[in-house]
Amino acid sequence: MPESAEPTRAVARAAWSGEDLAVVVEGVWRVTAPRPAWETVVEGRTPAIVRLHAGELGRWDSSLPLFVFAAQQWARERGIACDADGLPANLREVLSQLARSHETSVPVDRAESFLTNVGVATADTLAKARTILGFVGECVLGVQRLARRPGKFRWGDCFGEMQQCGAMALPIVSLISFLVGVTLAYTGALVLRQFGGDIWIADMIGLSMVREMGAVMTGVVLAGRTGAAFAATLGNMKAGEEIDALETLGISPVEFLVLPRILALAVMMPLLTMYANALGILGGMVVAYGLLSIPPAAYWVEMLTIVDLSDIASGFLKAVAFGVIIGLAGCLRGLQAERSAAGVGQAATSAVVTALLLLVVADALFAVIFNALGI
């Protein structure tokens, strides 16, 4: 009698014994051939246990492990035991590898406690603060070395950066400062007109611009314009291994690249702030004349009664500090950038965020210190 031919069709025979389901896989299993689905095997019923066996099993490829894997997943989701000991050893090995790759273990609650999250966040904050302080220390040491040997300072690069962050920023600083003065004047006029104190609009605009808004708005503009440019430039140099080349030649990147940029911002920021103060006061003067009919001469004389040299000096000091902060943030993020185009973009974004955060913190500290000193 001739031997029976090898089965040519994938089959999964289901046999119910009470609440137990025994499934026997047989035939040739091919991805390109028709094969049963697990949902058709169980026919919508829910057994107490599933037992998988191999019958007259021919050749098989990945279609059979995927079928068994679907059965195990189905049983696991419903809390049903699935016994696969009746399958060949090589098939069970493939299933174990498939389970590990898909992480099919029963999910557990991996949420960390509140104290753990606080500890991790604190450790991360301290690490970032340590990095920033280390970078600031390198800059201070670089300034000391260059003070002893000023001839080695890259004055040409510094003057070029002054032009980029100073003269080239005049249009945007002019527009924003003038509009800030106009906005403050309109807002103040709504209140002062109710008490007949229209002339006091000059006092409010003068103090607001000289002590606070001039330096802050100029810092915000330069943080988004110059700080991001510093980070992008240094990030591109790091991606192109130019910074590595400098270190190989024994040249400090801080002295060669960072200090000229920080000095340029520290010099140009106060000048731009004084310019922004003037335009903000001019914007308030325009609104006072057009809305409140206050002559420019009366506006100017009234402003001089409240604004003195201490107010100008406080704004000037803030501007110097803001310039240093923006330069440090931009250069630090640029040197920390990853060596890719995406890393350069992330460094520019991080430079702006870091600079704005530090500007707000520094402004609050200045407010506390000036109040304590009575300035």
Label the structural class: alpha/beta
Query: What is the radius of gyration?
Result: 36 Å
Mean pLDDT: 85
Q: Which sequence of SSEs, written as H and E, runs from N to C?
A: EEHEHEHHHHHHHHHH
Largest sheet: spatial strand order: 1-2-3-4
How many separate domains make up the residues? Answer: 2
List low-confidence stretches.
1-6, 104-110
What sort of overall outline do the alpha carbons produce when their principal axes are compared? elongated
Number of helices: 12
Number of strands: 4
Beta-strand share of residues: 5-15%
Oligomer class? single chain
Compute the separation of the termini in Å: 113 Å
For the sheet with most strands, the description reads: 4 strands, mixed
Proportion of helical residues: 55-70%
Primary descriptors:
375 residues, alpha/beta, Transcription Regulator spoIIAA, disordered N terminus
Describe the structure.
This protein has helices at residues 38-42, 63-77, 89-102, 114-148, 155-165, 170-192, 201-239, 242-248, 253-291, 296-304, 309-335, 341-373, and strands at 11-17, 20-29, 49-60, 81-86. With 375 residues, the chain is an alpha/beta fold. The chain has two domains: 11-102, Transcription Regulator spoIIAA; 153-373, no CATH class. Helix 6 (170-192) crosses helix 9 and helix 7 packs across helix 10 (296-304). The chain starts with 10 loop residues before the first strand and ends with a helix.
SSE diagram, text form:
Elements: E1 11-17, E2 20-29, H1 38-42, E3 49-60, H2 63-77, E4 81-86, H3 89-102, H4 114-148, H5 155-165, H6 170-192, H7 201-239, H8 242-248, H9 253-291, H10 296-304, H11 309-335, H12 341-373
Parallel strand pairs: 2-3, 3-4
Antiparallel strand pairs: 1-2
